[in-house]
Amino acid sequence: MNQSKKYDAIIIGGGFFGCKVAIYLKKYLKNIIILEKEADLLQRASYANQARVHHGYHYPRSILTAWRSKINFPKFVNEYRECIFSDFTNYYAIGKKFSKINLSQFKNFCKLIAIPLTPAQPSIKNLFNSHLIEEVFYTKEYVFDALKLKNRIYEELESAAIEVKLQTEATHLDYRADSQEIEIILNSKIGLSSLKTKYIFNCTYSSLNRILSASDLPIIPLKHEFAEMALVDVPPLLKNLGITVMCGPFFSLMPFPSQHLHTLSHVRYTPTYYWQDTASCVSSTEQIYHQYKPQTNYPYMIRDGTRYLSILQDCVYINSLWVIKTTLPQSEVDDSRPILFNRNPSLPNLISVLGGKIDNVYDIPAELQFLQNEDMIA
C-alpha cells in the first residue's frame, strides 16, 4: 500500500452500504478507497440475511419505515434488476394468537401506505392452520441474489474508479481536534501501515463501535444479536413460495437464490443471544463471531413453524448462516429500521453509517449533501 498517498475519503467496511457510500461520494470527491478486512466484498451481513427486498408489509408498527420501503422498493428493483429473483409468489399470513396486529389493522395499514393486498387463493390458505391463522394475503415482494449483487457492485466500483483494499483491517485513528486530516492505522498481511484522509466513513455494521472505542471517541448505543438463518430444501409445494407469518413471535420462509434453497428464520429462535454496547463496555463483535459456535435452533424453528404450516415438516435442513445483527435500541419499540448517519461529535469528519435493511441505501445521498457546503476537492 502506498503510505504517502492521501485520500479524500476512506470507507471502512466493504459491505453493500460501504460500497454504495463510496459510489455516492464520487459526486463530491475524487480519491476514494474502501478498506475491507475479509478476502472479498459483501461477505458478512450483506450475504447472511434473508435477502428480502421489502415493499412495506413487514413494518405495520412503523409507518415511516413501511412508507420508505414502499418508495424505495421500485428503485432497488429497477437499479438491480439482474440481481432480483422474482420467480416465486409471496404471502403474508396474520396470526390469531400472540400477534401484535390483527386482520383489520393489517388491512388498514396496507391501505394507508397504498401497497397491494390480495386474499390468497383457497389452495394456499388451506395449507395453514385455521385455528392459528386469521387470513393469508398475496403480496408483492422479491429477494436478491447476493452473489449477483456482489458482482454488480464490483462493476460499479470499477466504473467509478474506486480503489479497494481487501484483507486490511482499520485498527484505530490518530487525529487532532483542530486538524482537517485524520490518520487511519491499518493491519494487513504485510504488517502495519497508515493512510491519511479528510473524511472517514465507518460502515462496519456490527463493528461500528470497535474503532470508535479504540480511538477514544464517543460510541453509538447499539444492540447486537447473534443470529441464525437456517438454509433448508423445501418440499415441491413450497419451492416457488415465500411465506411470512405476522406480526409477533413467528417465522418467515424465503427463497435464497444464491444457493437455490430457502432461508427459515424465526423471531424467537433466530437470535441466539443479545447484548448492547455501552460507554463502559464495547463488545468485540469480531471475536464473538469467530469464537462463538452455537448449536442450530432449527429443530425449535421447525417445530413451532409446523403448528401454523404443517407442510414445513417436509423441509430438509442443509446448513445455517450465522451473522451478528445490529440495530438501534429504539427500534425495539416499533420495529422501525431507520438509517443511522452519525457525524461523531468529537470528530465530525468521521461519519458512521448503519442501514437496517437494504433499501435504506437510498436515504444516503440526501445525507451526503453536507459535502456541498464544505471545502472539497472538485
List the helices and strands and how they pair.
Layout: E1 6-12, H1 16-25, E2 32-36, E3 52-53, H2 63-79, E4 84-85, E5 89-95, H3 103-113, E6 118-119, H4 122-125, E7 133-139, E8 142-144, H5 146-159, E9 163-166, E10 168-174, E11 182-188, E12 191-202, H6 208-214, E13 223-233, E14 241-246, E15 251-256, E16 261-266, E17 271-276, H7 285-291, H8 298-308, E18 316-327, H9 331-334, E19 340-343, E20 350-354, H10 364-367
Index terms:
eight-stranded mixed beta sheet, alpha+beta, 378 residues, 32% strand, 10 helices, nine-stranded mixed beta sheet
Class by alpha and beta content: alpha+beta
Estimated helix fraction: 10-25%
* Cα-atom radius of gyration: 22 Å
Task: Kindly report how far apart the N and C termini lie.
Answer: 25 Å
Let me know the number of strands.
Answer: 20
Strand content: 25-35%
Number of helices: 10
Q: Which blocks of ≥5 consecutive residues have pLDDT under 50?
A: none
> SSE order in H/E notation?
EHEEHEEHEHEEHEEEEHEEEEEHHEHEEH
Largest sheet: 9 strands, mixed
Shape: elongated
Mean pLDDT: 94
